[in-house]
Amino acid sequence: MTNPEKMNISIKPPRGTRDVLPAESEQWQKLEELARKTLKSAGYKEIRLPIFEQTELFCRTAGEGSDVVNKEMYTFADKADRSLTLRPEGTAQAARAYLNSSMDRLRPPTKLFYMGQYFRNEAVQTGRYRQFNQLGLEAFGSASPLLDAETIAIACDFLKKAGVAEFEVQINSLGCSTCRPAYREALKEKLRDRLSTLCKDCCDRYERNPLRMLDCKVEADQEQFIDVPGPLDYLCADCESQWEALTLALGQLRVPFAVNRRLVRGLDYYTRTVFEIVSQDSRLGAQSTIAAGGRYDNLIESLGGPPTPAVGWAVGLERLLLLLETPPTTNVDVFVVSTDVDVALQVATSLRQAGISADLDFPVTGTKSRSFTKQLQEANKLGCRWAVIIGENELAKNEVALKDMRIKGLQISVPIADLPKKLRELT
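^ that's the sequence the OP posted. Answer follows.
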């Protein structure tokens, strides 16, 4: 007898995670295939990285004062009491792999991309989960602003090919270690008398990294930053030259952009170029960013490597999928209909081995087939182009009846041995 208490138990995915069911997973596959094709065409090569890393990696790169490190990381101790963290972002991982694998010895730039699942314990919003998927691109070894422009152009190309109708590229420069200190002091001077009206996080960031105050998500605080100076006002000669070259290159590549003087990124390793690609589509909810990235010329050095300029970006795939129309389902080509399940399975298997997708109707219990009518209804439900019908008469003649499911009454006899060839001729 079934235990009624067990019947009432409903185990759901943890908050911030979700199941991707078959109809949606096909859309994921198409997007991933498009990403690989687009990035490989620009010379980027795929890298696959671990799901978890030593916690120190993210503390050293993202910054001890960042929200990612302070609030959002899933950190745990293993059996040897080592601190490990489920990866919250991919750039630090790619940088570690770049160093560990001695890719710094290759002729620059080293162009890499990756896709996978990432983890942040943050507020769940439309298209934003605690377990989420990102596509990331990283280019190591070149300080050229033309590489910055290329990465931004590639991101735009990918979004357009994916089917995003409208978006805006916003860019800014955070300067470098030469000019940023002067900007930090100017920003602190401007905000010193406003600290009592700002949120706790902003007050904490005031000493650690005042630039990150501009990334505050509290609307009342954002109103306090409208008149503050921007880093573009404090660029040194080298950063100014980089900025001018970037904007010129984007124009030459016909990438429309807007300068957002208060744009910063949430991780401490960014230098010079930062950018976001945003959409005002209501399907994204309160969050408008689809892709974001920038330059991080000091990251490799912070991990113990040689000075290595680098630039990259990431796209949140769940948020991107919200903007795309659901594509038609890719259907199975052939449905095998037979009074004998064993025969149907043999024929379906032979078709699959010949590169033709095929399915059949398995009985719920036992080995007895359902009626031809029920099986053909199933073929229609799956959207199959062809039905291969094998009745007793066909078995006796060692042939099948090939039925075109789109044209009523069109049915031909075909020897079983010739079936794959005939199907290729007709499709």
